[in-house]
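Sync notes, pocket subgroup
Present: LS, DG
LS reminded everyone that the earlier model was apo-only. Rerun requested with pyridoxal-5'-phosphate included. Inputs:
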Amino acid sequence: MNTIAQRITHLHHTLPTSVQLVAVSKFHPCEELLEAYNAGQRVFGESQVQELVSKQATLPADIQWHFIGHLQTNKVKYIAPFVTLIHAIDSERLLAEVSKQALRCGRTIDCLVQVHVAQEDSKYGFPPEECRAFFARGAHQLPGVRIVGLMCMASFIEDEVQIAREFDTANQLFEEIKQQHFAHEDTFNTKSWGMSDDHPIAIAHGSTMVRIGTTIFGERTYT
Ligand SMILES: *Cc1c(COP(=O)(O)O)cnc(C)c1O
């Protein structure tokens, strides 16, 4: 498994067909993304707005770009014209801005609501109870946006039992919200959890979308 192309091909062959691969390419140069593209990968995840905008302008037009990290409200306008999926809606304010920018572009933008299930304190994501409340008050019902599922990150720990517990919490919450708020729609169907190290556990706990960077592209160098 030495080249990016070989690693992409390996993942395409080994991931269950029910699981979509997002190749997380942040901090990697366009040539490396193109290598993955030429091996058949079409879905890429980025977490920096400027980097995403510049890569989108350079690389093939049939790439589906996902924004995967924390998104600042004032930067939504730069990605609204082309982004395929925003993974981490972590506030009503952010969703309102995505709605506004989507309408300006004449688009509907698919989004995931980020749920905070990890042990670590993080500013980002709704704790399960707040996530329930978000849907219960209809906060997801805005024009120009479509909530297609949930996203989460597990704790950065070795304890696989705990990681499994966290994904399971997200999975149960997903089923509950689907039943209560999307029972008659099949668009609420995406569970974005699992990264390089924990994606097998994530898949065992319902994941339909994994975000894998390091396994494909190697270590990132942050400059
Ligand atoms: C960077 C990042 C990933 C990819 O992590 P790897 O461990 O390199 O696979 C996945 N999800 C999010 C939100 C990220 O920021």
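DG: The chain has nine helices and eight strands.
LS: The chain has a mean pLDDT of 97.
Action: DG to write up.
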